[in-house]
Design a protein that fits this description.
2 domains, about 10% strand, about 50% helix, Arc Repressor Mutant, subunit A, about 375 residues, alpha+beta, globular, AraC family transcriptional regulator, HTH_AraC, five-stranded mixed beta sheet, two-stranded antiparallel sheet
């Protein structure tokens, strides 16, 4: 899977740009939620939803027809849509603004299915699964490590130059939904972003009331692991099942059929004992020759997908406090640490030691962006 793979349901992307579905049509509400000061806040609303629809899609290379939601677009086309919105508004921090406007109701049936789960852990599991189906370029995972729990957001496909937009939108949106579910009195411990602080880094203070760190190994919202079993106030199993059924009846998905993603998920299950191409093909119900051909048709290979999984697992190992390059090399199937170190440098452009120093050493323990009280 790459930037040209058509895997994103157009119907899902339309929810990003049609805030009319959930916006309260009051100027003061728009101003308050966006944290922007406008002479006429209604102008902001018109800017966000007022781009000519046909022209908007045409410039992104999408042959759009009104009501045409049963189709898929590529990551590259999605990025072209974001580029137009950011340029039209002259607002590089648009992800923060839109994320703050996206309430539970704006996520539609996906939001309803998530917040009506019985516990916060089940809610986040549903969010992770829906992300895999509705926006395959991104991946969301729940991680519990001791007393720390986190929602981790990562890229399956590069979203550059708008990585910040997607991470901002999702972290702000789910941060607010978290507060909606558990109450304002309970804050996440902190939020981390995997990129250096952008020029608009100070604006993050408007949206988070907890510490914010940049240039970390991963993008994640971190809190008390004990909250995983928190019983949600809107829990309703029948409503959750009905919402999910309605969601996938109205928005087609194809992520589950994308071979590279199926390969990566299979490999993740074999941490430390990766199967050969032939064995992986057998598990997927095809011959090795067929698997090799289908991956080539998709612009990738078994080795490329294996390397992507190894890179992800190695970063997670260091992030969780692992320090032995030799141990990690053996866990990932390398015969010695030097072979792994060469591969790691090829993936990241730096050595394992440099990665540890950059993300886990003193330089990474920078003072967080201070949070300000929210007026939202």
């Amino acid at each position: 899977m790459d930037q040209d793979t058509a895997c994103i349901p157009l119907g899902h992307i339309q929810t990003y740009f049609d805030l009319r579905q959930s916006l309260i049509m009051k100027a003061e509400w728009i101003s308050q939620k966006s944290q922007l000061v406008e002479k006429d806040p209604h102008e902001l609303l018109r800017d966000i939803i007022g781009l000519d629809e046909n022209e908007f899609y045409r410039k992104a290379g999408i042959d759009y027809r009104p009501g045409d939601s049963d189709r898929f677009i590529s990551t590259r086309q999605c990025l072209a849509l974001i580029d137009q919105a950011v340029s039209a508004l002259s607002m590089p921090y648009l992800g923060l603004v839109m994320g703050n406007l996206m309430t539970v109701s704006h996520h539609g049936m996906a939001g309803m299915a998530a917040v009506t789960q019985e516990t916060l852990s089940e809610c986040l599991s549903v969010v992770s699964r829906f992300c895999a189906e509705l926006f395959p370029p991104l991946e969301m995972n729940i991680r519990i490590a001791g007393k720390e729990g986190s929602l981790v957001i990562s890229e399956n496909v590069s979203l550059a130059p708008y990585t910040e937009f997607f991470f901002e939108l999702n972290t702000v949106s789910f941060y607010n939904i978290f507060l909606h579910l558990v109450g304002d009195s309970v804050q996440p411990d902190y939020v981390e972003f995997s990129y250096p602080e952008p020029a608009w880094g100070h604006i993050y203070r408007r949206y988070f009331r907890c510490p914010v760190f940049f240039n970390r190994a991963e993008t994640r919202i971190v809190g008390d692991a004990g909250l995983a079993d928190y019983e949600l106030p809107l829990a309703n199993k029948l409503m959750a099942m009905s919402a999910e059924k309605t969601l996938f009846e109205n928005i087609p998905t194809r992520a589950a059929r994308l071979l590279p993603l199926r390969i990566r998920r299979l490999l993740m299950r074999y941490y430390g004992a990766f199967p050969s191409l032939e064995n992986a093909a057998s598990e997927l119900g095809m011959s090795g020759r067929t698997l090799r051909r289908k991956l080539a048709e998709g612009g990738t290979s078994y080795q490329q997908e294996l390397d992507a999984v190894r890179e992800k697992l190695s970063k997670q190992y260091f992030l969780r406090g692992g320090q032995s390059v030799t141990e990690l090399a053996l866990m990932l199937g390398y015969t010695d640490s030097s072979a792994f170190a060469k591969a790691f440098r090829r993936w990241t452009g730096i050595s394992p030691t440099e990665f540890q120093e950059r993300h886990l050493g003193p330089a990474a323990q920078q003072a967080p962006t201070e949070a300000m009280p929210s007026s939202g």
